[in-house]
Amino acid sequence: MRVAIAEDVVLLREGISRVLRDGGFDVVAAVGDAEALLEAIERTPVDVAIVDIRMPPTHTDEGLLAAESLRAREPSIPVVVLSQAVEPAHAVRLLGDGRGGIGYLLKERVAAMDDLLEAIERVARGGTAIDPAVVAALVARRRQRDPLDELTAREREVLALMAEGRSNRAIASTLVIGDKTVETHVASIFSKLGLEAAADDHRRVIAVLTWLRRS
Fold this sequence. Notes:
The chain is α/β, with parallel strands linked by helices. It has helices at 10-22, 34-43, 62-73, 88-95, 113-124, 132-141, 146-149, 153-163, 168-175, 179-193, 201-212, and strands spanning 2-6, 26-31, 48-52, 79-83, 102-106, 128-130. It starts with a strand and ends with a helix.
């Protein structure tokens, strides 16, 4: 799988590159700014792009803008965005187009090699990978809304795992419960939130996050 990386901190960029190469990925470009990333992808097609949100020259949202530009020009290219801090608004902004192939991870996730590789592979397949800390922030921000207050503690756990992009089987394994029990919780969640469940795993993630971002 061909990967392009944009990260202005040299040590982190090299660290990510090494982790991916050790994991069997082909790192075709590792650059320090958003413009260089877009130029590299124009020269060499990639299967997934990994972008830091804050890069030169202003260190604000250059990476986010690059991800949006890349998605507009090449909708089929999956993008994983890395952030130093939990910024739910950025996650919502990325997910706003309703398409898959998007990941939003905290940089600390890079240290957990297996988690990072799993997230990248999931995004490359057209899925969604949202950092659990970002999911928790989104949920906490919406706690005052009545529909979410109706969820049980277990349903909140299932909802958080759904928003990370987990399948029902993966949720069952994580929570050590049966597949049928997960299906029951998922049906209850959608019912309480007024959402229509879909067979496609990514669609249900987007549905949940779309509801969470409503003002």
